[in-house]
Predict the structure.
Amino acid sequence: QVQLVESGGGLVQAGGSLRLSCIVSGRTGIFAMGWFCQAPGKEREFVASIDWTGWRTYYADSVKGRFTISRNNANNTVYLQMNSLKPEDTAVYYCAVGSIASWPPSAYNYWGQGTQVTVSS
């Protein structure tokens, strides 16, 4: 069973930074990890993904140059470093597992419970 637990969200001023963490267990068969966000009243949107096999990364245009996705094998944790945050980044951020061997990932089938990020103007 794959389990994901996000943490690191909080309140930050525009231009500030946060680092989100996602502790992953039961990782057998995982081809990629991703971060998504969902703002109030809006659909869930893709943020970033990382391919375990090739160490490739992929980002939404809105976060390129500002966010960085990474993984630490020692502590089984996926990170999303968020810099130069904007009020429009305010959302619940979810960590997800993709089990389909494709790049960019075509689907995600395991999800965490989310962590709230609020960026004030």
The mean pLDDT is 93. The radius of gyration is 13 Å. The CA atoms of residues 14 and 28 lie 38 Å apart. DSSP finds no helices and eleven strands in the chain.
